């Protein structure tokens, strides 16, 4: 893995993964000049209820099925690392991959609650953040509590994220996608039972593509 290899990180429950995740990821790969994008399938988001959360294996399988791209890599790395908080995951990944330039991607719905994340200011000091517009959250993301602190660190464009002085944040619109995991679960409550769960994704034991 060469120095300066760039990786976007998209964390989430992926309960289940859907085409909106893939569409935003493909746009991020192209428009942000990323070498790869890793989907961090969370064992359990501490801000989401356990009830209704499908098993990790089923959610990882759904992510693999949807990703369908050699540079989008679904992984259960947080389960391997034993981390639950984003700050702990980022610190562990940066220790393991000191030559990689990481970028944190999240939807505008997550920006709305970013102030509730553990050590959220430290997260912003650790990696550049790109917030992707989502339906119903475009306006609300501007008034998110965390923006009171982040607004002065906001960049007009995400294109130059490699050269930002941290903290740094940009809001982008890669095309709004109405797909929702909540709606998918409501339409198909037993989706997880059909997922072919196999071996966990051993991301840390694999070299990213060059």
Secondary structure: elements and pairs:
Blueprint lengths: L5 E7 L6 H13 L4 E6 L14 H12 L4 E4 L1 H5 L4 H11 L4 E7 H5 L7 H7 L2 E4 L5 H5 L4 H4 L3 E2 L13 E4 L8 H7 L23
Parallel strand pairs: 1-2, 1-4, 2-3, 4-5, 5-7, 6-7
Helix pairs in contact: 4-6
If you had to describe this structure to a student in words, what would you say it looks like?
By secondary structure, the chain is an alpha/beta fold. Helices cover 33% and strands 16% of the residues. It contains nine helices and seven strands, in the order E-H-E-H-E-H-H-E-H-H-E-H-H-E-E-H. The chain has helices at residues 19-31, 56-67, 77-81, 86-96, 108-112, 120-126, 138-142, 147-150, 181-187, and strands at residues 6-12, 36-41, 72-75, 101-107, 129-132, 154-155, 169-172. It has a seven-stranded parallel β-sheet with strand order 3-2-1-4-5-7-6. Strand 2, helix 2 and strand 3 (72-75) form a beta-alpha-beta unit. The protein is globular, with a radius of gyration of 16 Å. The protein starts with 5 loop residues before the first strand and ends in a 23-residue tail after the last helix. Mean pLDDT is 86; it is low at 204-210.
Please write the string of helix (H) and strand (E) elements.
EHEHEHHEHHEHHEEH
Estimate percent helicity.
25-40%
Note the main sheet: 7 strands, parallel
Proportion of strand residues: 15-25%
Give the rounded overall mean pLDDT: 86
């Amino acid at each position: 893995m060469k120095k300066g290899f760039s990786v976007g990180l998209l964390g989430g429950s992926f309960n289940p993964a859907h085409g909106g995740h893939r569409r935003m990821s493909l746009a991020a790969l192209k428009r942000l000049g990323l070498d790869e994008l890793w989907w961090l399938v969370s064992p359990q988001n501490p801000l989401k209820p356990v009830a209704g959360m499908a098993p990790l294996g089923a959610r990882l399988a759904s992510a693999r099925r949807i990703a369908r791209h050699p540079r989008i890599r679904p992984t259960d790395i947080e389960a391997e690392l034993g981390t639950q908080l984003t700050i702990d995951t980022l610190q562990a990944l940066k220790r393991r991959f000191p030559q990689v330039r990481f970028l944190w991607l999240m939807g505008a719905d997550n920006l709305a609650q970013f102030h509730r994340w553990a050590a959220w200011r430290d997260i912003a000091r650790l990696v550049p953040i790109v917030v992707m517009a989502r339906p119903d959250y475009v306006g609300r993301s501007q008034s998110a509590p965390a923006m009171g602190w982040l607004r002065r660190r906001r960049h007009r464009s995400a294109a130059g994220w490699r050269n930002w002085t941290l903290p740094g944040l940009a809001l982008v619109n890669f095309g709004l996608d109405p797909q929702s995991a909540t709606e998918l679960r409501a339409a198909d409550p037993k989706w997880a039972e059909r997922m072919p769960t196999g071996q966990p994704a051993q991301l840390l034991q694999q070299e990213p593509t060059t």
